[in-house]
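Moderator note: this is an archived Q&A kept for reference. The question asked for a predicted structure of one protein chain; the sequence and the answer are reproduced below.
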Amino acid sequence: MLEKIVLDCGAGGSNPPLSLFYEFGYETYGIEISEGQLEKANQFCKEQKMTLNIINGDMRNIPFKNKFFSFLFSYNTSVHMKKKDFELASVEFLRVLKRNGLCYVNFLSEECSSCGIGTQISNGEFIQIEDNEEVLYCHYKDKEPEKYFDGFDIVHKEKRIIQRKIEDETFTSGYLDYILMKR
């Protein structure tokens, strides 16, 4: 049986998902590369009187020892990483997870409305300008992320296509969701 110890990679923001794990008795840890998002998470923790253990950190070099976590998740973080950087992160995921540990990770599909918008910097990678800042969006073909999963078994894979209508314009979001188990 796996211990209830979880890492969130990309754990910042004003409503950290780690709080749900905390409520269910997990020992929680998070890393966040953005100082602004880390600050928002720390404010949430202070207001809610929760200790989620979110620190400044980079998925490409996770600051925890080998085989420390039973569970790891990274929601919408690969969206803003170059593919070569996510490859480094996936090696780190494998390193910090215990045997039979579970990992949830998702990717943007090429079926998103945002695919192809902006300046292409590499295959499936586009820089867009949002609020006068450059933002990277990375999109994947259907099975493309699976090249990162050496050392993992795919427990579940789901492709989700969501259409939203905002001010008479329809937008499509496509996600490739994976649950992985470390061998």
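Archived answer notes: The mean pLDDT is 96.
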